[in-house]
Specification:
heterodimer, A: alpha/beta, TIM Barrel, 13 helices, 8 strands, about 10% strand, B: alpha/beta, 10-stranded mixed sheet, 34 strands, about 20% strand, globular
Chain lengths: ~325, ~800
């Protein structure tokens, strides 16, 4: 994350603020439907935006069959997400173009740290009983500690959805506060709301506020394992909560949509959303990440098309 | 030079232009010069005068179009008339095929239409592509359906004839669809005149219609100045005029067509409120404002141009709004990534700018975001003016540009009051997450479209049109059909009353003047001094549920069939009308107001009236015989029919509330048949009781309050009737009766600016004056043109036509989802 950025220290839980939230679903849907039609980038601008999207990817593997070898391959792609010949033709030879982070399970953190040695690419680890969060609190805390010990600089924690669904904001706050204390100065905390498990957009907004009050550095939509993952609707709601939090507290909190974003065109829509609703700072990896894996290949293919005018074959892009 | 690396760092937007090549090819094919589209052919008059159509974003001339003169207007109307003979007899299912073909062809030429529209008008390609043209197709699909169903679903109706349609420049294609689709679906033929600034898309549409195979003459497009528009409006062979545009021009058209028997629908201006309550999703509402006032550069008749925010969230809301404005992009209409394009014409740009200056001079605080505009072209920044009060002209008058004024309110009641504090009533937007509040406010705002937690939504299945000075008539939905049909029994009215056609003024300008009456001496043969004289019983006026003496204390003698004095009534004057109108308004304000009562309650009262009338059956029949000299049998039949009519409207009192409109909205769109308000009704002379009842009953059944002017010749049935009203639980002020000189009283009524509609069943000349004078506040009128109507028949004397006149449709859009 960028160094001159002041981390969100959190604030006391403000239940009145949480209770006073209003989110109108149809208004959200309308904004989300019209935004990608109101904003588009073409040609050079599009290439620049796609490249910027590459740098915002948390290149992720979160599977039962992850091995050290698989993680090593992913990290190699993270170091060099765009083919060098293409980068050169883009006029970006000297630029260090890497993804934003590599995101793995706690057991794979050490592999990733090893594979990324010599780069600035942070390793992010999911934790706290990812993806369901249904393990006892001490274990969840221990997971954070162990991931940090293995070298993770970012921790993607999951919330206990039951606290949101029952409206127990205090419990949610207290738990996240503990997680945040555990992360300490060693790691930034990204809080996964698992919006696909939540009932309403209003709950998404309220959970976003509580997560930020508890000191999250990022709020993140999904684990990728819920039935519905990142959508523009929940993203808009979360991003507006970030804006509201910024207005009231002065602290900038990052945003990470995750799960299901596989196409360059979708990435551009999210970028427009960030630029329009929050501003240009939220286009940079310090405050914006895509939790994705296949997205990178599509971005690379679109950049290839920009350079050559030819539609690219997937198998021409090196695998991650 | 900007490198990719620079862009990578700045993350700016770049140009994203839509190609104009297909449009340019089309314009070139026509030599950038267009004739008039008559009988499916391009017609170029000899010595044609041309007028340039400009691209407002560059000022360049796109093409020249013809200025139609009198011969061309005549030719177009003649073509439409000739086509009407066959088109009106073409089965609905066949007409449906043609409308369907047009709709499909619109889809096939979607992009061409959209690009041309943006080039000619200056609107963003995003809007023409995603809103205007899809809605254009939607309207033809929707009305293809009504053509298909007309013979079964509107079997009591016939087409009107040749329709002259004049449309504005803000939505050239969409307005054309709203006009043409229902008209030709119902079997009418059309002469359409597009606005001078934006003529080209209508000409392209004409070619698309021809391509679809529509028979020649059904749709004709003539271009020309406002004089050509006047020629069309005044053409004797035009049977209906439909207009969308400014209220000022609407007034002129109302006067031009007065007394002619032409149907008229007007969709006029607005200053629509956008109401934000403290419990609204404020971020959502901010986007709503963007859609409300910066859609089409604010050049939208229903633009939400008056922002009303609850005081306790106003500061926050305005802060959010200003931040949002900084993200607006204004530029080349063909750029796919802009929010606003160019203002249509230089004069319009200057008007808008003038209003902003006025707003500042009135003490307003004008805010414009720090954004870049293109160096040339008619661009204007989105503008917000805060700090003004309702007294400011900038708050009251329509600006028709990207300028929003904002006010605050404290309570829901005050929000409604401010929302309704306008001469207009086209649309409103209400934002609250409390469904009770939002729907209550939606029902109280006087406007034809109310959008709850949304704004500027349109669909073929929902009617659009105004209350008050925003006009009358609806476009869209089933309700939109009634502008293009007339009852099957009714011939096109061609009233004759000595109109000076050159000046369009009646030859007798003294209409409605009245000298109060004097005593009438009875013939000496009728008195012998020995008979016991009748007890003098002179009915009074009936105002606010009380019998009151006429203000002027003059008396009108009522003569029977053979010149015998049968009674006397008050000779009403202006002040009696004034008092009656006030009483009629008060009946809306009392709790519960007449309109707020449920239909069940109103129906009970109508049944009660019928019951009490029937109880005095013989007396009423006797009175009719006495006044008219008709037979006992005929008089009895009239009383019986009156009782039956009251039963009919007791039935209708809870069966005409409206419909759920099948729009594309997820949620509900409800078309509510609201009462018109206070209706002044001048009754026919024939059928002194039945005429009165036939007009009063539908009006009050649907929640209006009325000022009745009974038959001038035979007023006693009506004055007898107030005792029936008194004994039937009719709340005071719902029905008010003012006797006297019909035209004198009508004149005051129609000039009264707080009367919402006037129905007049007097003379042809009186009908002219009613329609002419109604232009003052654009009240709705319904006149008989002095033509006979068979009040005894159910077909002519009751039913849908009456209910239609007694209501105005409000469409409330409520999206759902949590």
């Amino acid at each position: 994350m960028n160094s001159n950025h002041t981390r969100n220290p959190g604030m006391p839980l403000d239940l009145d603020w949480v209770a006073g939230a209003h989110v109108n679903k149809s208004a959200v849907e309308r904004r989300v439907a019209s935004l990608p039609l109101r904003r588009t980038v073409k040609k050079d601008w599009q290439a620049a935006w796609l490249l910027r999207a590459v740098t915002c990817i948390d290149l992720t593997t979160l599977s039962g069959d992850d091995t050290p070898g698989r993680v090593k391959r992913l990290c190699a792609k993270a170091r060099q997400p765009i083919r060098p010949d293409m980068l050169s033709r883009l006029g970006l030879d000297g630029e260090k173009i890497t993804v934003g982070a590599v995101c793995v399970y706690p057991n794979r953190v050490a592999d990733a740290v090893q594979a990324l040695r010599g780069t600035d690419i942070p390793v992010a680890s999911v934790a706290t009983g990812f993806p369901a969060g249904q393990t006892p609190l001490p274990q969840r805390i221990a997971e954070i500690e162990q991931a940090i010990e293995s070298g993770a600089r970012e921790i993607d924690v999951v919330i206990s959805r039951n606290h949101v669904l029952t409206g127990d904001w205090q419990a949610m706050y207290d738990e996240l506060k503990l997680f945040r204390q555990t992360c300490g100065e060693a790691a930034h905390m990204k809080t996964i709301l698992a919006t696909g498990d939540l009932g309403t957009l209003k709950q998404v907004y309220q959970a976003s506020l509580v997560a930020m009050m508890a000191g999250s550095d990022f709020i993140k939509t999904s684990t990728g394992k819920e039935p519905v993952n990142a959508t523009l609707e929940v993203s808009l709601v979360m991003v507006r909560a970030i804006r509201e939090y910024l207005e009231r507290t002065g602290y900038e909190v990052g945003f990470k949509p995750a799960g299901g974003i596989g196409k360059a065109k979708e990435a551009l829509a999210w970028q427009s959303l960030m630029k329009e609703e929050l501003g240009d700072e939220w286009l940079m990896p310090g405050l914006f990440r895509f939790g994705a894996s296949s997205l990178l290949t599509d971005l690379e293919r679109q950049l290839y098309h920009y350079l050559t005018g030819h539609y690219a074959a997937k198998h021409h892009m090196p695998m991650g | 030079m900007t490198t990719l690396l620079d862009l990578f760092k700045t993350m700016d937007y770049g140009p994203a232009p839509e190609s104009p090549s297909a449009v340019n090819a089309w314009l070139d094919e026509h030599g950038r010069k267009f004739g008039l589209f008559i009988n499916n052919q391009w017609v170029t008059p000899k010595d044609a005068k041309y007028y340039p159509s400009l691209d407002p974003s560059s000022g360049e001339t796109l093409a020249e179009t013809t200025q139609a003169g009198k011969p061309e207007v005549d030719a177009a109307v003649a073509a439409a008339r000739a086509a009407f003979e066959t088109w009106s007899r073409t089965p609905g299912v066949v007409r449906a095929r043609y409308l369907y073909a047009i709709a499909r062809n619109i889809q096939k030429h979607h992009r061409l239409l959209a690009v041309l529209e943006s080039m000619d008008n200056g609107k963003p390609i995003r809007e023409s592509r995603d809103i205007d043209v899809p809605l254009l197709a939607r309207h033809f699909f929707y009305y293809a359906g009504w053509a298909q169903l007309m013979e079964t679903e509107l079997r009591d109706y016939q087409p009107v004839g040749v329709v002259g349609q004049i449309i504005p420049w803000n939505f050239p294609l969409l307005m054309l669809a709203w006009k043409i689709a229902p008209a030709i679906a119902m079997g009418n033929t059309v002469v359409l005149k597009p606005a001078s600034y934006t003529r080209l898309s209508a000409l392209l549409f004409a070619e698309i219609v021809a391509e679809a195979g529509l028979p020649p003459g059904v749709v004709n497009v003539i271009t020309g100045s406002s004089q050509a528009g006047s020629m069309l409006v005044e053409h004797p062979d035009v049977d209906k005029v439909a207009f969308t545009g400014s209220t000022d021009v609407g007034r002129i058209l109302r006067r031009q067509t007065a007394g002619s028997g032409k149907k008229l629908s007007l969709e006029l201006g607005g200053k629509s409120p956008f109401v934000v309550f403290e419990d609204a999703d404020l971020d959502g509402a901010v986007e709503g404002v963007v859609d409300a006032i910066w859609f089409n550069q604010g050049q939208v008749c229903c633009a939400g141009s008056r922002l009303l925010v609850q005081e306790n969230v106003a500061e926050k809301f305005i802060r959010k709004l200003k931040a949002r404005m900084e993200h607006m992009r204004v530029g080349d209409p063909l750029d796919k990534a802009i929010d606003m394009g160019a203002i249509v014409d230089k004069s319009q740009w200057e008007t808008v700018d003038g209003w902003v200056k006025t707003g500042i001079s009135e003490g307003g605080d004008a805010f414009q975001p720090d954004i870049r505009l293109p160096e040339k072209g008619l661009f204007y920044k989105p503008t917000l003016i805060t700090g003004l009060d309702p007294a400011a002209a900038t708050v009251q008058e329509e600006i028709f540009g990207p300028v929003l004024v904002s006010l605050t309110f404290r309570t829901p009641a005050e929000a409604v009051e401010l929302a309704n504090n306008t001469r207009y009533g086209l649309a409103a937007s209400v934002w609250s997450d409390n469904v009770n509040l939002a729907l209550d406010v939606a029902s109280r705002i006087k406007a034809g479209s109310v959008w709850v937690n949304c704004t500027n939504l349109f669909d073929g299945a929902s009617g659009f049109g105004g209350y008050r000075e925003s006009g009358f008539g609806r476009e869209g939905g089933k309700e939109g059909l009634f502008e293009y049909v007339r009852p099957g029994w009714m011939a096109r009215p061609r009233p004759d009353f000595g109109l000076d056609t050159a000046k369009n003024t009646p030859t007798r300008p003294t209409w409605g003047e009245h000298v109060p009456t004097r005593p009438a001496m009875p013939g000496t043969a009728h008195t012998n001094g020995h008979e016991l004289p009748r007890v003098d019983r002179t009915p009074k006026m009936y105002v606010g549920g009380r019998q009151v003496r006429p203000d002027g204390a003059y008396t009108l003698t009522v003569l029977g069939a053979k010149g015998k004095i049968v009674g006397q009534v008050g000779d009403g004057n202006r002040k009696d009308i004034r008092n009656a109108v006030e009483a009629a308004h008060a009946a809306h304000l009392s709790k519960p107001g007449w309109a707020m009562r449920h239909g069940y309650n109103r129906s009970q009262i109508l049944y009660f009236i019928a019951e009490n009338l029937d109880a005095r059956n013989a007396e009423f029949a006797k009175r009719i015989v006495e006044m008219t000299g008709r037979t006992q049998k005929s008089a009895q039949a009239e009383v019986d029919a009156s009782v039956e009519r009251l039963f009919s409207y007791a039935a209708w009192a809870d069966k005409f509330g409206g419909t759920v409109q099948e729009t594309t909205l997820r949620g509900v769109t409800v078309g509510v048949n609201e009462p018109v308000g206070v209706i002044g009704i001048a009754c026919p002379d024939e059928f002194p009781l039945l005429g009165f009842v036939s007009l009063m009953a539908p009006a009050i059944a649907r929640g209006n309050t009325v000022v009745m002017i009974p038959s001038q010749k035979h007023p006693l049935s009506a004055t007898d009737f107030y005792q029936v009203l008194d004994t039937s639980d009719v709340p005071g002020g719902v029905v008010n009766i003012v006797t006297g000189d019909r035209d004198h009283l009508t004149k005051t009524l129609v000039q009264h600016e707080d009367v919402d509609a006037v129905w007049y069943f007097g003379t042809a000349e009186g009908s002219y004056h009613v329609e002419f004078e109604s232009a003052a506040n654009m009240k709705r009128t319904w006149v008989g043109y002095g033509l006979p109507r068979d009040w005894m028949s159910r077909e002519q004397g009751e039913g849908h036509e009456f209910l239609h006149e007694a209501t105005q449709v409000k469409n409330i859009w409520v999206p759902t989802g949590e």
